[in-house]
Amino acid sequence: MIIERIQLHLIELPLAHPFETSFGRELTRLCILVSMQSQGATGWGESAAFGGPWYSYETIDTNWHVMEDYLAPMLLGEDIRSPGDVVARFRPVRGHPMARSAMENAAWDLLATADSLPLVTMLPGSVRDRVPVGVSVGIEETVPELLEVVSGFVSEGYRRLKLKIKPGWDIVPVRAVRERWPDYLLQVDANSAYSLDDIETLRALDEFELLLIEQPLHHDDIVDHALLQQQIETAICLDESIHSPMHARWALDLGACRNVNIKVGRVGGLSAAIEIHDLCLARGVPVWCGGMLETNVGRAANVALATLPTFTLPGDISASARYYKEDIAEPNFELNGDSTISLPDGPGLGVTVDVRRLEALRLRHLELC
Ligand code: OSB
Ligand code: MG
User: Fold this and answer.
1) pTM for the complete prediction?
2) Burial 298-312 (b: 16+ CB within 10 A, else e)
3) From the CA of 212, how far away is ligand 2's center (Å)?
4) What is residue 23's predicted lDDT score, i.e. its pLDDT?
5) Whose CA is nearest to atom 8 of ligand 1?
6) Going edge to edge, which strands form the sheet with 364-368?
7) Does any ligand 1 atom lie closer than 6 A to the CB of residue 189?
8) Residues in the 5 Å CB sphere of ion ligand 2
9) pLDDT tens digit sequence for 188-241
10) CB neighbour list of residue 65: distance below 8 Å, 6 or more residues apart
11) What atom of ligand 1 comes closest to residue 261's alpha carbon?
12) pLDDT at residue 174 tops 90
């Protein structure tokens, strides 16, 4: 298919609840959507970048620049027949995985939509039509407030909880949640808030039988994580440090983690995410699908990915209503009674962007052809 037109759309959606991590508090989600057109069909992709460089160095503005000046020109007028054709054209680009991912995923959706096939049919080895999920719970002011938020999620049906932690908000809140819900799957995410000097605190988390501890150390590290893993019982999971399939291999070879959070945007798109999945499958390493507070566009790609075999740990793919009162695409994702989320029907991603609402909300728009 000849890529005829690529558009970038910047919107800002208010979050249903403020979301606080060790790197900051988010009240709204600034988000770039990419649309890609060919022969009357449109594909959609979503960038995982935030406004500022707090989770990774990528931002809305760096993504816009890289997409406008480099990635879109590499695709416009080109004959794209498979996602691999996009990967090949982007090969000269170093870094900027979230920008590449938004573009590549739009091409996946375009190719699937043009063939009237659900995107998941393009994923080799998909094994389930509903994926196990949990909820990522932000930092609260006090433990009673945290318990109230968690009990809300528990009554909604989430059976796996992930608590955000940071120095000063770790042992006490984790103990409180563990005591109240002794049988729940529980894990924590530090978003790089600790160093090897904090080993006593990190080891103290062992008593809570956590499924895993996510990214305790520096955002780019795999060496210190390997040292830490030798000294604690809880499985380390890497998020921020894994930017590509090679990083995943290096981390596993070094023993820096026992499972991997695969985020499509962080690793550069669905193709790289599948490659990491396949590596982990071959090595018997369980993986799970992370989230970036996506709209239904990004969430649909995450659900499709999580149908692959070794996504056996519950993902950070919560119901749409957990994130936004009103999303930009329909239908919403709902939580099933068994703490799963179902793959939508329909061609491509299986969700439809409300273009009228997008145009009304748009803060910035660019059309390239
Ligand atoms: O570290 O996994 C993370 C949200 C924004 C940035 C980073 C992270 C998160 C989450 C929420 O934990 C995941 C989600 O539910 O989308
Ligand atoms: Mg994380």
Assistant:
1) 0.97
2) bbbbbbbbbbbebbe
3) 11
4) 87
5) 292
6) 41-46, 24-38, 5-21, 364-368
7) yes
8) 189, 214, 239
9) 999 999 999 999 999 999 999 999 999 999 999 999 999 999 999 999 999 999
10) none
11) 2
12) yes
